[in-house]
Here is the input.
Amino acid sequence: MRIDAFDTLSPDQVADAARILREGFAHMPSGFHGPGEAEAEAASFLDDEDRSALAALDGERVLGWIGLVRTYSHAWELHPLVVDPAAQRRGVGTALVAALEARAAAAGVLTLYLGTDDDYGGTSLFGQDLFPGVAERIAGLTETARGHAVAFYRRLGYEVVGLVPDANGPGRPDILMAKRLSPTPSA
Ligand SMILES: CC(C)(COP(=O)(O)OP(=O)(O)OC[C@H]1O[C@@H](n2cnc3c(N)ncnc32)[C@H](O)[C@@H]1OP(=O)(O)O)[C@@H](O)C(=O)NCCC(=O)NCCS
Here is the structure.
């Protein structure tokens, strides 16, 4: 497996990256279900100067990809991350996150953050009314048997820093996570 800049992919590979985005989030109502939605999202990482992305490849085959959105001066958003369902649980997602972190750290970024929705019941927060005392809910957040990316990110050192109640409808929050990046030697 190798990791290349998204803007070096061929048009066919970008189309495949869009397919992976659609299929990877197929279990989530907030996924990329509308006609052309996944294609537009993938294209934004080629067209928008505040966005860039990396792709994991096996030969010519795209295994997954990860995006970076330059938001604050010293904190950038990881968005999106998706691995082809046929290539999951083989370390591709972990390798993509590591490559993105290295890129962000080299640019002087101190914090990488992300939002990971629970609109399908992957965590104990699903179906709950999180107000009042939203922040106190974070301590009790666990993954359900359906599995959720929050477990993947925790394993990589990300912690839950906030919740957006009802982001995707009643009882369907977005879970905000962040990680401090190691300073580069020159920082
Ligand atoms: C989340 C995702 C990117 C992980 O990529 P991956 O290549 O499958 O992950 P890795 O093989 O690097 O996983 C490393 C470890 O993370 C954990 N992990 C990975 N996916 C997980 C999941 N869906 N639920 C719970 N834990 C998970 C496991 O501990 C795994 O180790 P193991 O396979 O030895 O048990 C991938 O499952 C995916 O694309 N999911 C759909 C889209 C999505 O949820 N994206 C993130 C939303 S912001």
